[in-house]
Structures are given as structure tokens and as C-alpha cells.
Design a protein that fits this description.
Elements lengths: L2 H18 L28 E7 L12 H10 L4 E4 L6 H4 L4 E3 L2 E5 L1 E5 L2 E6 L10 H10 L3 E4 L19 E6 H6 L3 H10 L4 H5 L7 H9 L8 E5 L6 E2 L5 E2 L4 H5 L3 E6 L7 H14 L2 E4 L10 E6 L2 E3 L4 E3 L18 E5 L9 E7 L2 E7 L3 E4 L6 H6 L2 E12 L2 E8 L2 E4 L1
Length: about 425
């Protein structure tokens, strides 16, 4: 064996070891839903009930490879609180009596419906909706008081084709099917080759930031008509190699572990299927949720609120500020400015992190390795704030693993207007 061949073998072996033992985990503190210091430590007298959910997967009822009952068991083992299927153009899991509580896991069926512009996810509906034109499908979802979400808007395989439509409630910001289809072909090859060695290594590539979809999301926020953002799995576990050969890749359990949508409720679920399905759908519709790449760890202690006139507002809320008086920025009747608080229980000794505050899609403030406090009235951009009818604030949290940065968590918006 010559020296060059030996060097190649050594490099391949080292690369194998890197893949085999690769791990990226966030260290969290044990604090609850509150900041560790300062005014943010009393963010909410009554913290919301937080539930983590798995949204958008396909089963044997359409083009997936798994039985609903088996997928439910998988979600239970992974500690999900709720599970929403989305088989194509059918609500048959519901009519077949599959919905209900399985232990503490709530499962109910949604539907991914074909329209002329792309696929629309309907959550919280009771009756099957036939594929058709967008206006008719949306009307049918609204008639059932359901939540309408644009599916994988920038997936090259089945993208959304008309970004000027109105009436929908939310957008899939993270769609794992789009995440891997949108990767560089070289990365896709690495994923395929490394999957059998270490699924975590292969799947961590799905955590890249969907820049185009986020830009679209930021651009469609309107006064009194916020669009929520969610993370969807879009799992099929059914990759077609030839007309007759398919492989169960990636497995449901592995994809379900990558990303979650976390809803924030005022009260615990009641145990009643109809009532709780509506509660979940309403939280998604109103943006009372955030989403994260839980592959790196389940979020602990995250909060994002606006304090104004003695009241705390959360994602999905709209805050009307008092008018300017006597040259003041945005004082309310009590003389207090609107203050934004955000934080998360990441152990800064284990992971460096940055909490970024965005207004109308532009980053306006950041806090490194600690909680964020931002006073709107005292901000240098207060004049620009008043020049627009509404400002939409949201949070992104970047976490560092050595020099590698991952945008780990995304909040929904809080609207602030005057």
C-alpha cells in the first residue's frame, strides 16, 4: 500500500469517527418560565400551559408508509403532547375512529388539500374537504372554523404558486421535507451516506434557516391580520427509488425528533376530544405558539412578552399604545413605556447564545448569553416606529456549538401599534 492510499484510509476512518460520535446538545438550567433576574423575572404571574406537538405527517391513508396506530405509539414514546396527521385530500383517519386520547397524547386528523396554487393544510376541521380551487377550499375550512396553513411554500417539488392570496391563517416556516429538498446536492449525498452510521448527524443538517420563507412571512403581516408560523414535519418515511422499490427513510421517530411546534394555552387540555382539538387549532391560528429544533434539546424557560400599562402581552396579541403627547415617545396614561422581555433557560456555561429581536423582519436588538429587555419608547427608532401603522416583533434565538451557529428557536409575532 502506498503512502497516498494509506492517508486516504486514515482520513476516511477519522471522518467515520466524527460521524459516528457526533453530538450537539444544548445545556439548560432548571429555571421555570421566567427570567433569572431583573424585571423579566416576573414576566407572567400565571405562566401559560405549554404543549409540544408534531404536525403534518402522512400515513398509509395517503402516501406515507406507516399505520396511524403505530405512528401514535411512536409519538407517545417521544413525549409529544399532541399529534396532527395530514393525509392528502382525505379525513379518513377521523371517520375510521382513530382520533382521541392515547394516554396523555391527543391525536386528531388534519387534511392536506390540493388547490391550483399548492397544498393547504386544514387543522381542526370535522368534515373532509375535497380538492378544488383555493377560494372554495379556504371557504370550506373557514365554514368549519378550521385553521388554514400554507404548506411548504418554497419547496421546489410542490411550491406555493400565488403569494398574493389572502384569507389563510398561517405558514409552514419549517417544513422538514422542504429543508432537505432545499439543501445543496452535496449535503443530500452526505445525509444519505451518513444516515446509517448516525441518524443524528444526518438529520442535524435539516436545521438550516429557511431564509426565503421567513422573508415571505415577515412581509405578509398586516394590522389586525397576523399570519402565524409553525414547524411541520411532513414525514412520509417512504422514499421512492424506482416504480416498485421504496424505502422507509427517514423513520418517523427520527423526523419527529427534529422539530416541534410548542403551543401556549391559558388552561390545561380538558380531556374532551372536540374541545381540545379546537383549543390546539385556535392556538395555531392565533400564533400562540413558537417552534424550535428540538433535536438539540427541548426548550426550557422560554418566554417572550410585551409589558404595557400594567399588562403582559404574548405572541399572537396586539398592543395598542397611547398617543404621543408633549414630545414624549409613546407614553401611556401611567407614564410607562412598552417594554419587551424575552429569555430562555440555556446554561451559558455550556452554550453561548444570542436572543435576537426583529421588528418587521429587521433585527433591531440582540442580547448575548442573557435575557433581553427592550424599551420601545426609549428606542432610537421610535420615530420610525410611529411612521408605520403597525410594528410586528418576534424573537429568534441563535445557539452556538463551538463556532457552529444554529437558529434554534423562532417565536410568533406580537403586534404593537399606536
Amino acid at each position: 500500500m502506498n503512502l497516498a492510499a494509506a492517508a486516504i484510509i486514515v482520513l476516511l476512518f477519522l471522518f467515520y469517527l466524527r460521524i459516528r460520535f457526533f453530538r450537539m446538545k444544548i445545556g439548560f438550567t432548571d429555571r421555570g418560565n421566567a427570567s433569572g433576574s431583573g424585571a423579566g423575572s416576573a414576566v407572567l404571574a400565571r405562566p401559560p400551559v405549554e404543549l409540544n406537538g408534531i404536525i403534518h405527517f402522512h400515513s398509509l391513508y395517503s402516501d406515507g408508509s406507516g399505520r396511524i396506530e403505530d405512528i401514535i405509539e411512536t409519538a407517545k414514546k417521544l413525549g409529544a403532547d399532541f399529534l396532527v396527521s395530514s393525509d392528502h385530500n382525505t379525513l379518513k383517519p377521523k371517520t375510521d375512529g382513530m382520533e382521541g386520547y392515547y394516554g396523555r397524547l391527543l391525536y386528531f386528523a388534519g387534511e392536506e388539500i390540493n388547490t391550483e396554487f399548492g397544498h393547504l393544510l386544514a387543522v381542526g376541521i370535522n368534515g373532509e374537504i375535497k380538492r378544488g380551487n383555493y377560494a372554495d377550499v379556504l371557504s370550506a375550512v373557514k365554514a368549519q372554523d378550521g385553521t388554514a396553513v400554507l404548506c411548504h411554500p418554497h419547496n421546489w417539488w410542490t411550491p406555493w404558486k400565488n403569494f398574493d392570496v389572502e384569507g389563510y391563517d398561517g405558514i409552514e416556516i419549517i417544513n422538514l421535507d422542504s429543508q432537505w429538498r432545499g439543501m445543496n446536492p452535496l449535503y443530500i449525498l452526505v445525509v444519505m451516506l451518513s444516515y446509517r452510521i448516525n441518524p443524528f448527524y444526518a438529520l442535524h443538517f435539516l436545521s438550516h434557516k429557511p431564509v426565503k420563507t421567513i422573508k415571505f412571512w415577515d412581509g405578509v403581516q398586516r394590522r389586525g391580520s397576523m399570519k402565524s408560523g409553525i414547524a411541520s414535519i411532513d414525514a412520509h418515511s417512504n422514499v421512492k427509488l424506482t416504480k416498485k422499490i421504496r424505502i422507509k427513510f427517514p423513520k418517523y421517530a427520527e423526523l419527529f425528533s427534529v422539530a416541534r411546534t410548542h403551543i401556549l394555552l391559558e388552561n390545561k387540555l380538558s380531556g374532551n376530544l372536540e374541545k381540545d382539538r379546537k383549543s390546539v387549532a385556535e392556538a395555531l391560528k392565533k400564533g400562540r405558539c413558537y417552534f424550535s429544533f428540538d433535536l438539540f434539546g427541548t426548550p426550557a424557560g422560554f418566554y417572550f412578552n410585551v409589558l404595557y400599562a400594567g399588562r403582559y402581552y404574548s405572541s399572537g396579541d396586539s398592543v395598542r399604545l397611547g398617543r404621543k403627547r408633549n414630545g414624549d415617545k409613546n407614553l401611556d396614561n401611567k407614564g410607562g413605556n412598552a417594554i419587551i422581555y424575552a429569555g430562555i433557560g440555556i446554561n451559558r456555561k455550556k452554550n453561548k447564545f444570542v436572543i435576537n429581536l426583529f421588528r418587521n423582519g429587521e433585527k433591531v436588538f440582540s442580547s448575548k448569553n442573557g435575557d433581553l429587555t427592550y424599551e420601545i419608547g426609549a428606542a432610537a427608532d421610535a420615530g420610525e416606529f410611529y411612521a408605520s401603522p403597525s410594528s410586528f416583533y418576534r424573537i429568534e434565538i441563535d445557539v452556538y456549538f463551538g463556532i457552529k451557529k444554529v437558529t434554534y428557536l423562532y417565536s410568533n409575532n406580537i403586534e404593537v401599534y399606536s
